[in-house]
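Take a record.
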Amino acid sequence: MNYFKKILRFAKPYKSYAFLNILFNILYSIFNVLSIIIFIPTLGILFSTQEKVFKAPVYNGLGSLQVYLKDSLNYFLTQKVDGEGPLAALVFICVASIIIFFLKNLFRYAAMYVLAYLRTGMVKDIQDSLYLKTLDLPLGYFSESRKGDLIARMTSDVKEIEGSIINSLEALAREPITIVIVLISMLAISAQLTLFVFIFLPIAGFLISIVGKRLKAQSLEAQKETGTFLSFLEETLGALKIIKGFNAEERLATKFTDSTSRFKKIMISVVQRHGLASPFSEFLGVAVVITVLWYGGSLVLGNQSTLTPQEFMGYIGLFYTIINPVKAITTVNYNIKKGNASAERIFEVLETENPIKDISAAQKKESLENHIDLKNVSFKYADDYVLEDFNLKVQKGHTVALVGQSGSGKSTIANLVTRFYEVNEGEILIDGLNIKNITKKSLRGLMGLVTQDSILFNDSVRNNIALGKENATEEELVEAAKIANAHDFIMELPKGYDTNIGDSGNKLSGGQKQRLSIARAVLKNPPIMILDEATSALDTESERLVQDALEKMMRNRTSIVIAHRLSTIQNADSIVVLNKGKITEQGTHDELMKSEKGYRKLVEMQSMA
């Protein structure tokens, strides 16, 4: 129930709808009871056993309210039968019954009507919270979690919560109210018989609860398996070319069908156990009704009670009315246990702490005045250090290139400067201010990022470039595209800047996608530019265009360039050669070529290649 309470927090903004729902359910329950009670005098009139009251009753306070209401109705019916005959009294009761049933169903619909706002609002807020949390979580979280599993939590788990928990709110609001009002009515008719009922209801409830003990555990297994095969699906869609190229369809299909087979096995057990709830509770309910029928009938037939036959039949009708609410609450219990498994998975994400967050005294920084300084920085992703006691200073307006073998720590430096990851030891300073003391938003506002993989969205060219700056003008967009050598090919597209570029920009070539990424960074116009192997995946012609765009973009900017192709960084102010997280050489291209160490060997190897 702990996760159920947490889910209910999302209902707070909609509490006015919850109050209205409770009010309408109270009115529904009252008219539901009246729809049964109204038939008691009907039976009395039909069988001529209706109690006659010839003197108008007197109201003597709440203690005698039930007697007063009963005598008032009997007095009215007595007057009606004596004055106009039994048929007129019967017509009156029939008309009253129609009005009561109309009001009962009207209030039931009104309760469901207002609940729709609460139910759909909660689902939206849960999905919004998950998405916002996904945006907030650090990159390290996603290196440990499968994207497919996160998608499963945002889709099937939220759907399960909607179906199992949120949709149960109607029953949770209506059924307890109905039970209370029906029980009060039953006590008013016969306290002795109602006390007898109380002996059997807890026994029935205990037996029903035994059935659902493993339901939550099995539901949790099912949702985890859903995340597994959604991960397979997500990986498959992103790697279809490789799968087909290596004839790996059968192996991937086997992995996927093994996962869905496990899911099928778990769900068979869940569905069977869940399906047992309704018939089992109904059987127990009928058994209790028959027991009450036997006991109450023996009291009436043996003249051991003041109950009249029509009151006893009305009592049985009321008792049978209470069976469905009790059964509904039992079903709610199963649903909540089933939904709790999904709620647990959702709150596992929502309650994940982001270790990279702004301190209370964090400052905004809007410009780079002097330099970026990495002092004694050590960092590790897992057990082994990628950088250890690393020092580097980047002066304002200078271009610093980082080169070295894969795994030497080049991209790690870019991830630490942008604070995508937190240093384990040491500090990174901008103009002498530790980046931990700068708000993340303003820190990243200082930086433009162009990565090896062009990350574009299934949207128009215009909106992909405009991601770099809100409310950018048409002139600014075009100018950024021209600097990135992208304007000409954009104008050749079917709709120019309004052309949709497809999923991940797959309607464009690699060079075109990269030039759009550069245009996005140019439009942002940041003082610091970080280029992470921005040309390594391009052909020679595309590389020439992109490199020209990069050089125009880096003019008068502070740039950190992670380079794979060394020919692209010969004009850098400083080239830093890394090996296993340490600097082995540092200097200009000409200086390093004279040293005849690691850098020169790398250049010669690439030239030979």
Notes: The radius of gyration is 37 Å. The mean pLDDT is 79. The longest strand covers residues 385-395. The first helix runs from residue 2 to 8.
